Amino acid sequence: MSNKTHLVDEITGHRRMRRNRKADWTRRLTQENRVTVDDLIWPIFIMPGTNIVDPIKAMPGVNRMSVDKAVEALREAAELGIPAVAPFPDIEMEKRDPTGSQILERDNLINQFTRAVKQAVPNIGIITDVALDPFTSHGHDGILRDGVIVNDETVDQVSRAAVMQADAGADIIAPSEMMDGRIGAIRRALDAAGHQDVGIMSYATKFSSGFYGPYREAINTGGLLKGDKNSYYINPANGTEAMLDAALDVEEGADMLMVKPGLAYLDICWRMKEAFGLPTYAYQVSGEYTQIKAAAMNGWIDGERIMMETLLCFKRAGCDGILTYFATEVARKLARS
């Protein structure tokens, strides 16, 4: 019998990596990470009124919806198996003020939405934010006094807002305003109000990023913003600082951690999951979504393929799930598979 050993066998020590890639069935059998519908959190935009579906120009395929239309959309999302929704409000300009006081109205848009969803679609989770930017006249996430975003007063306000959102039925509070001490303060406020079962998903590492632009159009804060958010968001250059921020949130009682934005910060996703072991999520933000959509609309990329590839990258980086505007599109694709 002739020896059919090849030079390649000697070079590789008879270990050929392509053996496991040779057929569809071997590739499926050896795949390390998968995207499932259980990985998806759907961020949506809500607005006042009824029977409104308002397309967002900067985010093709994404709409602002009145509460009634949002409830209809969430019925479909729940049927597709999407576990949770994260609502963001575009409230009337006349209700915005320097302190974002509308967030403390028990019947504000977010709380109306939460109560309506809990009544109509009780099997979908609701993850609400308490940042003030949708409610302020200056577009900042906190209270602005004499040109400074004041930390402690903002923490007091978002803690009160968190309790009101929990009263309305929110399952998880996800504070994104990046004030020091907010996680511990919100945890204490929730517990004091009897909301021990309401979780906290910390925006543990929210970077001062250029990827947020389309979102600001969606909630109409882009033209309002005075200055920048560099005094409270994290410098994109600073990984160690981001990890310290996350560690403080863990100490203060966060149940889950989030990295925002997503794709440009996969290293942070991995480091956070490895360091803390808590459920870890990435927010595939508006700029990430729009880049893919715009390139696909111009025929420059295969949009569906890139959509799935980016989500798979988050899973490979250790994420337990992803907040993505692609959620319903992905869920429909998975349902067809």
From TrEMBL:
Cross-referenced SMART domains: ALAD
Keyword annotations of the record: Heme biosynthesis, Lyase, Porphyrin biosynthesis
InterPro entries in alphabetical order: ALAD, ALAD_AS, Aldolase_TIM
Protein name: Delta-aminolevulinic acid dehydratase
UniProt cross-references to SUPFAM superfamilies, sorted A to Z: Aldolase
Family recorded in the similarity comment: Belongs to the ALAD family.
Protein source organism: Rhizobium lemnae
Summary of subunit composition and partner proteins: Homooctamer.
GO molecular function, one term: porphobilinogen synthase activity
